[in-house]
Amino acid sequence: MTTLGDVLAALEAAYPPATAESWDAVGLVCGDRAEPVSKVLFCVDPVESTVDEVLEVGAQLLVAHHPLMLRGVTGVPADDPKGGLVHRLIRAGVALYTAHTNADAANPGVSDALADALGLRVTGPLVPADEGADTGIGRIGELDHPEPLRDFARRVAEALPTTAWGVRAAGDPDRPVRRVAVCGGAGDSYLTAAARAGVDAYVTADLRHHPAGEHLAAGGPALVDVAHWASEWPWCGQAAHVVRTALGGTVEVLVSTRRTDPWTVGVTSRTGGSQ
Ligand SMILES: [Zn+2]
């Protein structure tokens, strides 16, 4: 019999909790390590739709990238949105486990999964953990052949799950792209690192007007901005592979099919519309 403790041991070997940032909240949110587990669902966000999904598929463990409760709470009442999710999970005998910045820092980790999805051959971290280290935040990788930014943006859109507003790129659409930096999740703070790395493009999420514009004006790499959820979704497959490799045969692994990107409508102005 495989227990929750066995599954968590496999995950923690791949994503050691001690490597999480000090402000983070990773690990077991609810669940009994002695209980049996035969099916695990992997998702980015522990929200209503993925809790619905884990109950529908009959898994005993939901592994999420984002923490349910990042800041301290004094209770989990059922009439609170997050407390309600905890109630639903515990009533159904489902555990919730989070691997967040420890999954970002791991090798392979969140950004390796993103790089793999885009067809990049990873050559090293974007921001090394220590001088000369081969781990750290983000990844730098290379395409087999250079392609114009417009084609590269299309590649990104086709490699990642569909979102309401898709993928947008900043920079000359004809600019050749071969060396690429990627950072799953919000990567604003690594714009300078991407510029220093001398890559042709930087793929990340949650980029803002002023930092993006100033970065381009200073001659930085082209930017490809994707939905935060989409940038981290490839990690679900990687984490599922970790559990399948360690416990395959006794535990079935599933990747969430629910789109938990909060943005649900994307429209573009008609030709001639205001700028
Ligand atoms: Zn994230």
From TrEMBL:
Q: GO CC terms for this protein? A: cytoplasm
What Pfam families has UniProt attached to this entry? DUF34_NIF3
Any one GO molecular-function label of the UniProt entry: metal ion binding
What InterPro entries does its record include? DUF34/NIF3, DUF34/NIF3_sf
| Domain of life where this protein originates | Bacteria
Keywords for the protein's UniProt record, in alphabetical order: Metal-binding
Q: Which residues bind a divalent metal cation?
A: 65-66, 104, 228, 232
Name the family the entry cites: Belongs to the GTP cyclohydrolase I type 2/NIF3 family.
Q: How does it assemble?
A: Homohexamer.
Q: Which NCBIfam families match?
A: YbgI_SA1388
Instruction: List the protein's name.
Output: GTP cyclohydrolase 1 type 2 homolog
**Gene source species:** Saccharothrix carnea
